[in-house]
């Protein structure tokens, strides 16, 4: 009998063969038998073959190092549409969203589940790395501090701050409050603004953490915007 999925992991990808294997392996190192859902925006490199190396073969008795994996191609891409598509295809009660060039470091499972008893979402700490070099947390990165914050407000951006490169939800909640599919970026910030307007809350929890690696097309590295 197959094990019921508890946590689904949604990863957006486009030509991420440098990091996506590290991302998925880090998820497997921290979460037992997750469901991996990759929403692929027409990658032309080795991204998808790398993802498939993690695919569990149900005919094999030894599945260590493998897990349930789905690859879904997206047309007419937008960040919000890709995330909503991944969430709608998730089988788990909980959904972790992680960037394909992030490496998950700490996932305090019971704690982040407890947060969701009171809050709609949790987003975690990110440490930036530029070609292997740890970068000082300035500008956008300065939001990732060592204290918990409810409904974080950014003085830099002059709006509520939420970052979905490492974020955790109940599927029932994020399905009820989806991301805006018309935006070409910062869909997470506008989502946060809308959540607060609706009288809901989210929490920044530094105990949930990842390394965020530089990529040429990574939106987080393009400045404040």
Q: Termini separation (Å)?
A: 49 Å
Structural class computed from helices and strand pairing: alpha/beta
Relative helix content = 10-25%
Overall pLDDT, averaged?
93
Low-confidence segments: none
Total count of helical runs of at least 4 residues: 6
The secondary-structure element order is EHEHEHEEHEEEEEEHHE
Description:
This protein has six helices and twelve strands. Strand 6 (121-130) and strand 7 (133-134) form a beta hairpin. The mean pLDDT is 93. It starts with 6 loop residues before the first strand and ends in a 12-residue tail after the last strand. The protein has helices spanning 20-30, 47-52, 79-88, 109-115, 171-176, 187-197; strands spanning 7-13, 35-40, 69-73, 94-98, 102-106, 121-130, 133-134, 149-150, 153-154, 159-160, 166-170, 202-213. It is α/β, with parallel strands linked by helices and 225 residues long. The radius of gyration is 17 Å and the shape is globular. The strands form two sheets. Strands 1, 2, 3, 4, 5, 6, 7, 8, 11 and 12 form a ten-stranded mixed β-sheet that branches. It has a two-stranded antiparallel ribbon with strand order 9-10. Helices cover 23% and strands 28% of the residues.
